[in-house]
Structure formats: C-alpha cells, structure tokens
Design brief:
Layout (H helix, E strand, L loop, with lengths): L4 E2 L2 E2 L9 H4 L2 H47 L9 H13 L8 E4 L5 E8 L2 E8 L2 E8 L5 E5 L6 H10 L3
Antiparallel strand pairs: 1-2, 3-4, 4-5, 5-6, 6-7
C-alpha cells in the first residue's frame, strides 16, 4: 500500500495535533477525506456481506427443516421455531463487525445454534431459543456461561467474549 510522504515521514505517522489544513491544499484535504470515507465504506461492505450471508443461512435452514418436518411428520425431527429464527436475525445484526463467522445449526427443541471452534480448548457456543440467548464457552481455563433475553442490546460481558477471543 502506498502512502503520501511529507519530509520522508509517512502521513499515517503525523501527530493528530498538526492541522492538516496547514500542510495541504483544499484539494489535498478533499482527497484525504474521500479516501477515508471510501475506507469506511469498504469496511461496511464487508460487514454487510457476512451478516447477510449468516441471516440467509438461518432462513435457508429454517425453511429446509420446516419442509422436512412437514414431509416426515416425525416428532423428534429437527426444526427451528419461528421466534428463534427472528431472534437469531436480531442477534446477528448486533454481532461485532470483525468476528470470525460461526457454523450455524439447529437443536431438536427449535433453537438456532451458533458455534465457533477456534482451536482446541477455545470453543464458543450460542443457542437461541425463542427470545432467550444461552451461551457457554471454553476459553482455556476460563469457562464463561450465561443467558439473557434479547431485547435492545446484547450484554457487554457477552460482547467481550467476541472481542477478546473471536475477532479477526
């Protein structure tokens, strides 16, 4: 990646205390602002891509299991409760932007499951049953677990697991 240099110092290393308007013309400032906007936009595009993909995967699993249950009429067959599907979509929308994408599945109680297998002894599992989010992790010797009802925002202790262990 190329960078603009000023007196042989990369632009990224210039202290924030120096006013850019004193160093560059209006055109240069405009180009720098547009570059920053594009960078932010580019990161959002990636974010929207994996979120949409996960939401589509939940929807496809919901429809596939719904059709299978209708066809087989078995009591013990897997399915996803509609409310679990909807809550899962809301949860995906609140996942941090830079997480590792999980594996998605279903439980026989109608829950949607999200599983991360980072490596041996670093596992994170979430089960969304209707509006209840239940989670457990093995993070070396640390083994957090808990549950919450997804309303507005997900709890900070739950978010810290992502940020500390399952971010890219």
């Amino acid at each position: 990646m190329s960078s603009i240099t000023l007196k042989s110092y990369p632009l990224e290393n210039i202290s924030q205390n120096i006013f850019l308007r004193d160093l560059f013309s209006n055109e240069g400032l405009y180009i720098n602002n547009q570059r920053q906007l594009f960078k932010n936009y580019q990161e959002d595009c990636i974010t929207f891509g994996w979120r949409t993909s996960l939401i589509n995967e939940v929807e496809q699993l919901f429809n596939a299991l719904k059709n299978e249950k209708t066809c087989t009429q078995e009591e013990n067959s897997l399915y996803i409760h509609q409310h679990s599907r909807d809550t899962s979509k809301k949860l995906i929308d609140q996942f941090p932007n830079d997480i590792i994408v999980p594996e998605i599945g279903a439980d026989d109680n109608g829950s949607v499951t999200f599983d991360w297998y980072l490596r041996k002894n670093y596992i994170f599992s979430i089960s969304v049953n209707k509006s209840m989010v239940i989670y457990a992790a093995i993070l070396g010797s640390y083994k957090p677990k808990g549950e919450f009802i997804l309303e507005e925002n997900i709890p900070s202790d739950f978010l810290s697991i992502f940020k500390d262990y399952f971010s890219k």
